[in-house]
Here is the input.
Amino acid sequence: QVHLVESGGGLVQAGGSLRLSCAASGMPFSIVDMGWYRQAPENQRELVATISSTTRTNYADSVKGRFTISRDNAKNTVYLQMNSLEPEDTAIYFCHAEKNWLTGREYWGQGTQVTVSS
Here is the structure.
């Protein structure tokens, strides 16, 4: 059974930093493309960043230059380093595993709250 467990969220002042972690189990992590999404109250879930199995990365324009996604296949973990946080970054952040030929479906974590105070 696949599990994605996020951690690292919390309350931080504007300009501060947080690092989110997502520990995966029950799937062939090294060949799965991973990502982080977020959802603010009354907003749709939106893409923050993705990282492929070959470590190719992609970022939303709103976080480019401030956030960095990375992965450690030995630890089955994907990270999101968030710097220069802004109140607009306040949201629940979700870890996502892309569907591929082996897993057959996508998976989501339960989410972790990030709150940035002004």
Notes: The mean pLDDT is 97. The two ends are 40 Å apart (CA to CA). The CA atoms of residues 62 and 85 lie 11 Å apart.
